[in-house]
Write a structure and sequence with these properties.
The protein is an alpha+beta fold and about 180 residues long. The chain has 3 helices and 11 strands; from the N terminus they run E-E-E-E-E-E-E-E-E-E-E-H-H-H. A hairpin with a 4-residue loop joins strand 3 and strand 4. The protein is globular, with a radius of gyration of 19 Å.
Length: about 180
C-alpha cells in the first residue's frame, strides 16, 4: 500500500510551529494516512500523524497537506495531497493512491486469472488564489475548460513549445509559465 516502503526523516509543521524532533514518516496511499515511527528501521507502525488541515509534513522534499478537495463529478472529500507547485496565483497538487484489486479466477479457458494486487492511481488538482481545489486531467480539453481564464496563454504556450500536455513534467512547466505571466 506504499509508494515508498521505508520510513523517511520528515519535517512536520504542527499548528503553525515546526517540530524539532526526529520523526520518521511514510505515506500509506491505500488508507490515505501518514504512518509515524521514531526510527527509520521500522517495518510497521501503529501510530499515524493527526489528520488536520493545521498539520503538514515534508517527506523527501515533497510537501503533504491534509486539505478538502473535489474530485471530478463527486462531492468534496478531505485527504492528503502533495504540493507540486505553490505559486502566487496557481497551486498544483498531486494525489497518489493505491487501490487493492481482489484476485480473479478465469471463468473459462479463454480468460486469464489475476492475482490480488495493488494498482496506482494518480490524480492532479489545482486551485486559483487559494480557492477551491478541483481535479484537472492532463488533456487539452480539460485544461482549456478548467483554466479558461488562461486559455489563450495555454494555446500560445503549446504552440510555442510544440508540446501536448500529457506528462506531469509538461503540466508542471505549463503551470509555472502561467503563474509567472
Amino acid at each position: 500500500p506504499y509508494f515508498n516502503v521505508s520510513f523517511e526523516l520528515a519535517e512536520i509543521e504542527y499548528f503553525g510551529k515546526d517540530l524539532n524532533e526526529k520523526i520518521y514518516l511514510r505515506y500509506n496511499a491505500l488508507n490515505d494516512e501518514m504512518e509515524l515511527s521514531l526510527n527509520s528501521f521500522s517495518t510497521d507502525s501503529d501510530n499515524i500523524l493527526i489528520k488536520s488541515n493545521k498539520v503538514s509534513c515534508v517527506i523527501n522534499n515533497e510537501k503533504y497537506k491534509y486539505v478538502e478537495f473535489t474530485p471530478e463529478n463527486s462531492i468534496s472529500i478531505t485527504g492528503y495531497l502533495s504540493i507540486l507547485h505553490e505559486g502566487e496565483i496557481l497551486t498544483l497538487y498531486e494525489r497518489k493512491q493505491k487501490i487493492y484489486m481482489e484476485a480473479t479466477k478465469a471463468r473459462t479457458s479463454l480468460e486469464r486469472s489475476f492475482p490480488a494486487r495493488y494498482t496506482d492511481k494518480i490524480q492532479y488538482y489545482f486551485s486559483i488564489n487559494n480557492g477551491s481545489i478541483l481535479e484537472i486531467k492532463l488533456n487539452k480539453k480539460d485544461l482549456l475548460s478548467k483554466l479558461n481564464i488562461y486559455s489563450e496563454s495555454i494555446k500560445e504556450y503549446q504552440k510555442l513549445n510544440k508540446i501536448k500536455i500529457r506528462s506531469k513534467e509538461d503540466f508542471l512547466n505549463l503551470i509555472r509559465h502561467l503563474d509567472a505571466n
